[in-house]
Amino acid sequence: MTDNLDAIAHYYAGKLAAHGERAQGVDWNGETSQALRFGQLLKVVDTEAAFSLNDLGCGYGALRDQLSESCPRCDYAGYDIAPEMVAAARNRFAGMPATRFEVAAVPDRIADFTVASGIFNVRLDRTNEAWTRYVETTLEHMDRTSARGFAFNCLTSYSDENRKRPDLYYCDPGTAFDWCRSRYSRNVALLHDYDLYEFTIIVRKSGSGAR
């Protein structure tokens, strides 16, 4: 899968070069939908308490902007496979306390929580079967590096058939829920009610204290 991750890193570097440090630069439609999906992911944390967070697939650091406003006591680490994204994020947040960015596909620390936004969407020429194995492996890493819980989103298999793209991965929400419920925690939430062609899974580990 390493070669394919290199191709995906190149794909996103191209989006950043074309659109700059904005939602389109990480292949989203706009800032409004980007903020909406961040809000779903952050339901895993208690925004009024101090916590540490791994942001897997951090891009240029858009989630860090949102956390600065809603979660001022967050110890943040962002990870991305595209060096260009990490360079942009480091430049944007140079000198910000409790904030760092690394080129990596797996977090290098155990944090309270880990979130991943959009990292499972673009599979390029990989088969669904191969990409599903990658998703499951990544979820194992997220579980291992999250002490209190984690959250991720996927494009939904319930998307309109005539709008689906062959290079994107559409996941069955029930299957993703079953993965997480059987492997990681009894406390799993499936969010499929926020008017985007995707869903969010929230995994809370026992005693996490999250809302």
Automatic annotation (TrEMBL):
Keyword Transferase annotated: yes
Sequence ranges assigned to domain Methyltransferase type in this UniProt record: 55-109
Source species, domain of life: Bacteria
Record key words, sorted: Methyltransferase, Transferase
BP terms from Gene Ontology: methylation
GO MF annotations, alphabetized: methyltransferase activity
Keyword Transferase recorded: yes
Name used for this protein in its record: Class I SAM-dependent methyltransferase
